[in-house]
Write a structure and sequence with these properties.
Helix content is about 60%, strand content about 0%. With about 350 residues, it is mainly alpha-helical. Helix 5 (about 95-105) crosses helix 6, helix 8 (about 145-155) packs parallel to helix 10 (about 180-195) and helix 15 runs antiparallel to helix 16 (about 290-300).
Length: about 350
Amino acid sequence: MGYAERARNALYALAAGDALGWPAFYHRTYALPFWTRRLRREIDAAQEERGILRFPMPFSLNRATESLQFYPTDDTEWACFTADMLFACGGQLTREFVAETWEQLANAATEVRGTISIQGALHNFREGLQPPVTGRDNPHYFDDGACSRAVVIGIAFPGRSQEAAMSAEIDGEVTNAFDGLWAAQAVAAALAAACGGASLEEALAAALQVLPQDSWVKRVSEEALRGGEAFGLGLVPYLDRLVNKEYSYGGAAPEVLALTLAVAKAAQGNLERGILLANTFPKLADSLPALVGALCGALCDEPVPWLKQWEPVIDELHGLCLPRLKGRSWRQVVDRLVEVGIKNGGLE
């Protein structure tokens, strides 16, 4: 087994974790007509007035329910976007090519969905700005928009955490800066280490090594990993205290990275336990299950039976964020990424 199995496990687990997170249920409503979302919001407003505690969930009404069944959404599609850039560059991203690709996307006529940092960067391109300004002059420079994209970069550089972090900088600086960028680099470093055969402890150390001292992301990550001897659900109350409840959006990269590392540690690298545990943090559920899945998957160099059962569910991309990806096979993307990783030094 070895590298190829670790890489496949990581990428399939990224997509499965993405599909499993409760926000993906809401993301999938974009495959339905707008009026279904409008009705849900009107019902939500009405139940607020009438003191009804249960809030309305996504529904298809008189439309086919296939749109609301499990399939991957934003984390996987944006990871595929960066994977395509890796393929076009022969596995070695360049700043010129990355900027050109993003600028083309910004000026395309198609509707693109993504995090605030992604939308902010696309707006900046349309205003004539270039990276790294597109990521720095960005209201959500600190979010986790680059973290799922960093997963595929880490997988492309097995055992080469420093190079993975440098490549993640080229990709991540388009949309993020400072803690948002450093978190993405840490994700890439951890995945590179794990895919290269590192242990859980070594992968965690690789992530921490790229974080600047005294930074927000370093402080929160170290605090999360100091969670004592508790494992599994016993650690949840401690970790949940690290997730801010003041801000209106989830997905602050320092918190997402911190809990990715801590949940993987609490699950002792077990993929199934890790994804299930990640889903106990509702405010971070848009990306945490996907990132924990990727990290824990990269630590497993044997086939994962339940993940095999998910392959047909997560294979087809639906183009919810990037319409051009509609109908793409995630399996084929995974196979090509494995080839890139082998070319970059991974052992089959």
